[in-house]
Structures are given as structure tokens and as C-alpha cells.
Write a structure and sequence with these properties.
CATH architecture of chain A: Alpha-Beta Complex
Number of strands of chain A: 11
Oligomer: heterodimer
Shape of chain B: elongated
CATH superfamily of chain A: Amidase signature (AS) domain
Helix content of chain A: 25-40%
Structural class of chain A: alpha/beta
Radius of gyration of chain A: 21 Å
Number of helices of chain A: 16
Structural class of chain B: alpha+beta
Largest interface: A-B, 43 and 29 residues
Chain lengths: 490, 489
Amino acid sequence: MNSLGLSATDLATAVKNREVTAAETVAVSIGRIAELEGKVHALLTPLYDRALARASEIDRKIGKGEDAGPLAGVPVVVKDNLCMKGIRTTCGSRILENWHPPYDATVIRLLEEAGAVIIGKANMDEFAMGSSTENSAFFPTNNPWDLERVPGGSSGGSAAAVACGYAPLALGSDTGGFIRQPAAFCGVYGLKPTYGLVSRYGLVAFASSLDQVGPFARSVDDLALALDVLSTPDPADATSSRRCRPGYRACLGREDLKGLRVGVVKEFEAYPVQTEIREALGRVEGILRGAGAEFLPVSLPTTIEAGLPCYYILAPAEASSNLARYDGVRWGLSVEAEHLVDLYMKTRGEGFGAEVKRRILTGTYVLSSGYYDAYYLVAQKARTQISREFTEAFRNVDLLLMPTTPTLPFRQGENSEDPIQMYLSDVFTLPVNLASLPALSLNAGKSPGGLPVGVQFVGPRWGEETLLGAAEAVERVLGKPAAAFGGEWV
Amino acid sequence: MKQPGSAVIGLEIHVQLATASKLFCACSTDYIGAVPNTNVCPVCLGQPGSLPVINARVVEYAVRTALALGARVGHFTRFHRKNYFYPDLPKAYQISQYDLPLAEGGSLPIGEGKERRAIPITRLHLEEDAGKLVHSAADGRLGHSEYSLVDYNRGGVPLMEIVSEPEIATPAEAREYVARLRQLVRYLGVSDGDMEKGSLRVDANVSLRREDGSLGTKVEVKNMNSLRALERALEYEIGRQAEVIATGEQVRQETRHWDDGNGVTCGMRGKEEAHDYRYFPDPDLPPLILPSGFVEEQLRLMPEMPWVLKERFCTDWGLSLEDASVLTEWPGLARYMEGCVRCGANPLRAANWIRTETLRVLNERKIPIEKFPVSPEDFTALLAKVEKGDLSTTLAKKVFDLMVSEGMPLPAAIGRLGANSGKLEGPALIAIIERIMERETGTIEEIRSGKDPKGKKRGFLCGQVMREARGQADPGEVAKMIGEILDNQ
């Protein structure tokens, strides 16, 4: 059988039932990458040999009648800011170009324990700073639906890989929308979990209080399965919640959405959003209403006003501290220098790209004595207020329906000269990170020009179940998103 | 106290906590003598992606110390990042506590009797230690080094910083304060408090009061590796500042390094760097909220405080303050003393012997009391033999030395020295008795005229004979022979 086109769920079942071997599955995946990578450039480091070896191991396990796990033989692409022992992990940066972590990220371990086969590490904006993957120090990734356009970012490589069918699943990280925005741009599902649901241990930090690892997939079922595997509590991450997780996949399959209250944010109505996206919102609203959901207006005045500046103070502040360790002393790039301060300046000067430097400078500035109170502290207060607003809104509704992005995928270079314009593309996604909420971006069709159009559901903390249920209702009507380049997806 | 020119000293003490693992990871804290960069992991090396998780034992130790100082333990505290670049700091920030320390307030008593006073404590907080740099230059300093090496074994070792209020008036008081704090952490079992090994590090802030009584410019003095160095450094620094003021100049705000060899404090060359540490709450660590019952449990585990113990040694056993101070300096020593008394030792005699003999042995052999080979039982039995006159003091010390050097039990040691009681007998013993009887005619007269109803005076005579016999006679035999002489007359 041809494994191309199977969902992760079906693929794992087929591998376990010996209808196809893990090795064959991985080979198909590698073939697909070989066919398309020259156009898309989604991967920084393919891991073919390792993947084939892992696949044989899984086949041996299955041969011996052992349980190979819920993701047995499923190829997975992971963002290059997730540490894999002995595997080059660059974060899209020159400064880590040749860094080989001595340990596995918890999510990598969980994936592999579940039988997944990691086939490559995906391109990204340097240190996850960017919304287009153009900030990768190595090369930009192209949008599979229009190679002239960006795949979004910072998890652009992961989103493009899933859209191309390199693998049915990929991992990204979302600090301000970096899973959802590329998911929308590439026409796949992307889930940003509640802060604390998925371990951050081994995720190279951008902004620790906002970062969260999450999955990309082409079906709601796969998204739920991935979440079941990833959401294990982790004692190595002090911010990992110890609360009990429901079985996300087990929660799927509800007949209708009767009693579901969906909120629409009044303040976002006035915000300039491309027509195709407005239409998609209407389409999704219609489907949800049809399934029995009711719609209510909610108000998030501080969020719309303060979200963006608040984010662009707090995230750089944390980043300036998180990225201080790249000093040329221990690992990563180290530029020959006469004196210690020279070593710091040369290594960081040559190792970091312009956007990273911009954020480090901003972050250093807002934490400096004399400015801390005016920037960092005010932003923290705004963050608290934004959280309160969402909490208040979720007293009356079970989830929010919002645009993922104000625009369709933009052209390469279109925004890269104007950082502010680039920052504005995160306006609908980043408040979700500030409030530590879960959100799911789903594909709601194509524009007349053939570009994917995404919208997102935002839930209360630990509300992943509700998001998946609503997405499933939409999927029933619109079908699973198609793969780019004519993949034969179900 | 508030006179112009008088010194004002505040101390910041870093105490390395004696936990088995580091503050935020499971690596061993046992770095002394370890091969460089072997007690390390992704967390304490600050490898990208790694995250800290607080060691609960560290919190227990710090809370216990806070309680001993009578400080208010914060039930809700948090950790901040102190950002600065240095090769020994792998993350380029130190995780420390800033606006909400683990404990605030409290005090440490110093001095005795009327002199006794409490030095108020400002705060107690937790932070991680840095790694260690080894510079290639001959003077061991960065300046002229061709290269420098860094060992991260110490990085992430838990430190408890205890900051005193600037209410220490003299170098001697400062020394006393540090000695008391060191004693306290040893009693609590939270640190070995060894200054030379660096498990207790003292930084001093020193200033002199101005004419109007206000505080003068503060100078920070570092690198004092012993109590004596601390006292000398402070004396030097106070004198230096007084001289600067006397010449009409301003004391510069700076950090000065104590040079023990030359007995001076030195300012940093060149201009002081103005540090902006850009403190902000560490987003990797949620606030530290002590569970209910946590503080109570630590309170339950508290040993008797050394100052309480000292008082008890004085009042219960009549020891001098000096004896009590010496014997309570180390918790093990105090336990040993208590063990002896529990076995029936005379406290005064035991105190005297421990101070002169036991401490001598400990010093000579450089061992802690826990490794002292003579058990309190044997020690007490030995003292009892001396008391009863079975052994002369001189002989007892020989027996003691044998017990120490050979690790022998008491009877074996006595046997080895041929000092078994009853050895001296016959004509030699009679000769001694006769000599004593001749000397003590007055006493004999009194006994015979019936002035010794309780037999105390007979006992005295026996004692004199035993002493003369260096404890080698059988006390029963001696008593019998003396009785015969007295009754026969």
C-alpha cells in the first residue's frame, strides 16, 4: 500500500497491522522530500539515515509482537529549536550552526517513545524571531502554495513540511503565533496549547513565559493524537502543569455542538482584515451555527489596544536574557579575539542576525534601570489585565472565533524591510500567548488566487478539548485540508 | 555609637548549603578535588533549552536557618535573574532572589552577659553559585593571563546569602558575628561553614560616620578567607578611611580586595564598572509557595541553638562561660560533652579534660570530634578512675594517649601500661603508707579522737596513698591497711 496520504492515526494502525512497514513509510516520506525540497526549502537538517535506522527498530519491535506505540512508524518533522542528542540544532542561527545538544528535549523523547520517526529538522526564523521564516540565517522557506510567498513563521519550515506531505505531523513552537500563523499561511492545522500543557525542556528559549511547543497536522484526529503524546507532565520543567489531562483523541466524535457558546470579539470587527479572511470567518460561523452553536459578542478592549506593545516589550526582555548565554565561551560560534569583551562582541556581532539584535537591544533597554518601571513593569500589568479580560470573556463563552492573521500569505521581501508591519501581522495571535491560552488555527478554504485562508479558535486555559471538538465539526463539513503539489490526501 | 568617625559595618555572608545536589539540578555539589567539569549537566551548564527546577532540600535548609535567626519566612517568594556577562556564569545570568527574599528580619546574638547584643538581619535569600576561573598568569589574576580555564563544577551549588543591617561597630564584633553565624549553620547541619574552603564567604561594607552622624561613603571589602583576615581587613580599612578623611579627601565608593599577604586592601585598577543587572523575575521558575505545614515541620527539626546550649552548660553544670563557649563551638563537641555527663562524668572534670586533652588531639590530628576514637563511655570511665584515685592524672593521660593512638578500649590501655590497680603491694606499699601516716599526724589524731563519723578523713588518707602510688595500688587493700594501722594504735 502507499502510505502517502494516510493520516498519522491510520499510518500507525497500518504499521502495527503490518500492512506497511515503518521502513517503507519513511522511504515514502524521504521520496516526497527529495521531490519537493528543491522548491520549498523546509528542512535545515534531514535525518534520513537516522530515520531509516529508527524505522527498522520499530519494524523489529512489531515483528516481535511488542507494542510500538500510538505513533508507530509515523514520520515527524520537528522545528530546529528542539534539542536532539547529538543532532545539529541551529535555531536558524549562525551562532548555533554547529551545535550538537548533549540531550533530548522532553517532547522529542515523548515522540520517539510513542514510535514516531523524526525525519528532519525544520527551518525557522532565527531564534523564532520573525513571522515569515525569512529571518533564517541559512535560507528562506517558500510557501508550498505559492513559492513567491512566505510560509509564515517562525515555524514556517514545520508548517510547509506538513503542507507538502513530508510527514503527517510536525512540531513547532508558538511564542506569539508562530504555530498558528504559518499553519494558516500553509493551509494546515496548528495548535498552540495552554501554557504549561507541553514541556518546554529542550526547547531553546525565545521568551520563556510565552513559548509553547505544539503540533501541526492535516487532520483534527492527528492533532488530538499528537497532543495526547506531547502533553505528558514533565518534572524537568517547573512550569509544566501537573494537572490531569483528558484523552484528547478520546474526546473527539461528538455529534453536534449544541450548547456551545462562541464569542466574537467586537473590537476586532473594526480591524482591517482581508476580505477572504472575513468570508472564511463567516463560513466557519455558519458551520458552527449549523451544528448547534450560538454566537455572542465579547469585548477585549485592552487586548486590542495593548497586546502588541505589551508583547514587544516582554518577549524581547526575556529574549535579551535568554540569548545572553551565546557568548562564545562554551559552545556554538566562537570568534577568535584578543580580549574577553572582544570575544563577546565579535561572536555575538557575527553570530546573530539583524532581527535578533534588534530584539536583544529592545529587551536590554526595557529592563535597564530607569526604564524598567516605565516599560517592563507597565507591560506586566497590561499582561495581567489582558489575562483578566479573557477570563471575563470566557465566563460567557466557551471559545472565541477570530482571524489567525489580518492578511493572506505575503510575498517574500514584502514586509522584511519594515519590522513594524511584520509585527502587526501577529496582532490576533500574540494576545493568546500573553494570556497563556490555547488556540487552534484551521484551514477554512482557499482564496480565489489559491492561497490558504485560516481562522483560529481560542479557548480558556486547558480548553483544548473544546477547540478540537469545534475544529472537528468544521472538518466534517469542509473536509481535511488538501496537501500542496497534488498530494493524494484523504 | 553614633559618634563621628566611628565605624559602621554591614556584612553580606554567602553560605554554601551542604545539600547533596545543586540548587536547580541533580548534579553533585561535591566539587572539591573533583575532575574539572565532571559534576555538570545541561542545566548547570546553561545549555540552550535546559530549565531549572528548585531543589526542595535547599529550601528546607534555608528556612531552618531563617527560623534560627528569628526571621520572617516569606510563604510566597520568587526568583529573579541577575544579568551580567562573565565566563564563569554559563547562562550569563545568575538566578537569585530580589524583591521577595525567602526571609526577612531576625537577628543573631553576639557577646556575653552585659555585652550581649543582637545584630539585626536584613534578609536571607537563595541564589546559585558561579563556576571557577583559573587564570594562567603567575599572580592568578585575569589581567596578565595568556589564557584562562573555567570549571563549572561549582556552578549551580546552592548559596544562602545572609545580609546584616549595618549595625556592627568594630572589627572584633564583625569577627564574633561571623563566628556565631558559622557556629549556627554547623548546628543546623546546613553547611560546614568552612571559610578557607569557601563554603562561607564574607563581604563587608564599611563606612565611617560623618560629623553630622550620617553614614559616610560605603566601601565594599572582599576576599577575606578567615576570621582573622576579616578582622585585620576591617581594621586596615577603617584606618585607611580615617586617614583619607583626615587629609580632607573623599572616600571613594568602590570595591576593595583584601591582600592577606601584604595586609592591605586594594582598589580595582581603572574605573569601576557601573553594573546594571537588569533584574527581572525568572519566567522559568514559578513563584515559590511554601506548602502549609512546611515551616512547622522545619521548626520541629530544629536542634537546640548554641547560645541556649551554652547557657544550659553554665547554669545546669556550673561551667565557666569560657568552658561553655569552647564546648558549644561545634555541635559534635557539645554532643560529646553531653554524652560524657549522661554517662555519669563530673561536668567540671569532663570539661577540663575535653578542653585540654580532647581538643589537643583533635587539633594535632586535624580530625573532627565525630572521628575522635574514644567513646564518651570510655572517656567517662577513665575520668572516674582518676576521680576515685585509681589512676593518677599523669598515668591517666598516658592511658588516654594510648586509647587515642591505638584506638584501644580503656581496660586494654590500662593493661598495656601495666597500670592495673593492685599492682603496687607488699613492702613498697607499706613504705608509702608509713610515709603518709608520718606526714598526716594531725589527721590521724582527729580520726582517733572520733572526729570522723562519716569516714571522710579516712578516705582522704587513702586518697593520699593512692596518689603517692600513682594509682597503682588496690584501693581496697590500701583502705584495709590504713584501717589496721589506725585501729591498732
